[in-house]
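Continuing the batch. This is chain 6 of the set; chains 1 through 5 are on the previous pages. Same settings as before, nothing changed between runs. Recording input and output for traceability.
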Amino acid sequence: MRDDVAFGPAVSAPKIGVMPRLAPLAALIVIGMGLSGCILGTERPDANLEVPASYRAGPRAPDSAVPALDWWRGFRSSELTRLIENAQAANLDIAVAVAQILQADAQAGIAGAPLLPSLTGTGTAERLRSANSSSGSSASSRSTSQFNAGLTASYMIDFWGKNRATLYAAEENATAARYNRDVVALTATATVANTYFELLTAQDRLRIARRNAASAERILTLIKQQFTAGTASQLEVSQQETLVATQRASIPPLEITLRQNSATLALLVARAPAKFTVGGGSLASLAVPRVTPGIPSELLRQRPDVMQAEAQLAASNFSVESARAAFFPQIQLTANTGFQSKALSSLFGPGAWYYTLAAGLTQPILDGNLLKSQLEQAQGAQLENLQAYRKAVLSAFTDVEKALIALQQTSLQERLQGEVVASSRRAFEVAEAQLRGGTVNLVSVLQVQQTFFTAEDNLAQVRLTRFQAATSLFQALGGGWTRAPKPAAPRQF
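Output for chain 6:
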């Protein structure tokens, strides 16, 4: 519960000999603070959730390779590591999330202020001129001076815990803001990784497209030679020219993808695209880290979005407590003490000291259902956050399952697609050799070319999908893992 005290005006410091006279004021405040109530923290809301013992698509040894804190190093790309570190230091979305933490902390400070006594000081000096009522002459008027220095103290006894519940709600919101920062940072990290992979894939596909265009032009030259010799038709020449043009036309879209992803990376690291360059390379030179998902129950302590939803639920629980406590009487303690004199020289004399003590009780009677509506609103927010927390937990399990399936199947697909590329390359080489010897049908050559070119491009895209699946798994697991601390004990006061 919450202790709210406002302390009144204070101006000149009293003499040391007068300090014992402030004892009634201090005793009143201490007694009021001792009467303030208590609130117990809420239990973890995952007690009744269905938490599986293991992942259906997970390995038999789930903890054999849980992700490290710097999981992105597992891709073995120094450029990717540098980009991610730059993003973590300069990303503007993360900066916004940090600013929101500052606001949430300040709001918690505002919410905690009513728990402490309020003390204010006052000092006044007045010059009064009054007329003598028995004479109409202005010469009979007289002037007086009035000097005053004092302290006013105020304290709201938080007997029902209203103000302390408000403070706890603000603290939980500040905790949620910190988890939100982690969510944003993890999203930014995964986005940098995926964007970098897309850039490398665009470079790979550009190399494939240019190499295939050169191969198609080489075949076109052979067909034209046969056409000149009278062993090939104009139709066959035109078909090969179409294939060459198709390969050339595939290059500009890949250039767009390459340059736009470079610009996206510049934004992620808070750089101007015109002054930002990425070396890149080939996605085939990177490694896919080995990662296992751990135990599903541990995920609830690793996913920042789940922890954020839990903090928001806890905040709404305390908001309900605060709204419920508003129905009960509020007890206000006030005290005034100071010195008052007509002469400044005797202001702090023993005879000039005064004090007043007062206690007041306020009980809402008729408020147009305001308090009831506020309680119902808080309860509705509590229910909303409860369902949001449950969804966050189930979504976390679902994300991990989907990422495990995607990584498993894309790894298999990449291996199989590699076999397709190898066999189609051999077929293309044989067809080209036979074409030079004039022992192959040109329609078969055209089909072999198209199969080989498509297979190589598909392999690059499948490889990208596999790397993105790995990133999705890291993101689904909440990034790097640390051993979860023991749950904190409920608050008691």
